[in-house]
Amino acid sequence: MQVKVVLFGILRERFAREKHGHLTVELGEGNTIADLCTHLGFNNQVIFSVNGEVERDFERELNDGDEVHFFQSIGGG
What we know:
Layout: E1 2-7, H1 10-15, E2 22-26, H2 33-40, E3 46-50, E4 53-55, E5 67-72
Parallel strand pairs: 1-5
Antiparallel strand pairs: 1-2, 3-4, 3-5
């Protein structure tokens, strides 16, 4: 299955600058957000949405054609 990935902020600069933050990733059926993060080399310090809905479950299964947006988690104090 193919999943569309859009990266924002520093993730875009580090991983997909030449593609303006847009990637298409081929994954196996039943793969999850966690699997996608591993494929992309991300740790779990990212925020993401699936098809325009904020998602917090790294175990959410993805479907063919889903669009996942990733943002760098920011902390401060």
